[in-house]
Amino acid sequence: MGTPANRRGSTRLFALTVVTFVVLEILVLVRRRSSIQAETKDRDSSYFLRNSRLSGSPPGVTERAAYSQYNKSLANVDGKDLLRHYTCRFVVDSTWPATPTQPDDVAIVSLLSATVLEQLENYILGLEVLGYSLAMYSPQHVHRIVMVLEGTPCFAECERRLHDAGWKICETQKITPPHPSVVARFRDQFAKLALWNMMQYKHVVYMDADTLAIGRLERLLATKLNAEQPLAVAQDIRGGQWVDGFNMGVGVIPTNRTEFVRLYRLMQSDAVQYETTMSEQGFLSKVYGKTWKRLQFEDNANLAAYDQDRVKWQKSRADIRLVHFTMEKGWSIGDHSAYAAVGKYWRAVQLKMCQRRCQSKSTCMIAEKSRCNCALHVGSVCQHH
Q1: Pairing between β-strand 89-91 and β-strand 168-172 as defined by DSSP bridges
Q2: Are 189 and 110 in contact (CB under 8 A)?
Q3: How far apart (Å, rounded) are the C-alpha atoms in residues 239 and 229?
Q4: DSSP H or E segment with residue 209
Q5: Model-level pTM greater than 0.90?
Q6: Strand partners of residue 201
Q7: What is the pLDDT of residues 80-115, one digit of tens each?
């Protein structure tokens, strides 16, 4: 045992070591936070320097001034770091501005992610066919946008195919909940929360990549919402029963920064008990309870109803405007499928797409894996262009 003086010295040394360690940890945390903020700012800055227009910016404003104005617009906004981080950044061409000068009334938005990489090609094809169907049944002035999730390998060929189908592309970050779905293809679906942050538009109409327009969409695009009904979606059917919750494959969403921050924080706080298997659909159904506006079945004709409530499907068939291929995807429905009668709508649009792409010169229109195969039929041989 040491003397009292030695013990006091050891105690002081230990206390000094602990204080030094705590201070160093605080410095590391501060530096890390500063690094994240700088990275977010650099990413935002490079985005606005890549593009020439910003919503709310008068014509002629320089890119740096636009970014400065954007920062000022968020100066007193709660959750501004979240809003910056989850802004969907447009990949634009020289003929189209990153955002309109003034917010447009509405845009149609879909999502592309690579949760299941082997299915990526199918969903790109799904977006191509959906895009062509929208060209037939939605007003031409309405922007059609694909949110491509970070890490999704959508490179030049993928971008070209989506652009050819009428889509504009924006890149967004993953939003990961505390309890991701056990269903692989549902895990990235919380990225839909970023729809509330698309402030270039007054509201957006979301459509999954496995939907298809087969009727005019003006009524859906003009859906009115209010504080009592801040979301418009269709009732879901599961196990042969129409349930209290809704299906998030089609939805009308009013953009609202405050609501985006609220939803994000609710998700991260793990304060909402919901069916995690159903991902964002289960979460939003719990959050909004009964305060959602019911879209007509014809605006989200869930293929599950064809199987589980054929009477309703048959009654509505002539007025269906959007088909949602939930039970089996349009690109995989064959002639002998239980859903072949509905799958013919998807194949018909795909054929029109291929005919346009191949300029009606091809007799070998649909190739392996459902890709368009532009080829001339010479004798019995298909000669590729």
Answers
A1: antiparallel
A2: no
A3: 27
A4: none
A5: no
A6: 104
A7: 788 888 888 887 554 455 444 456 789 999 999 877
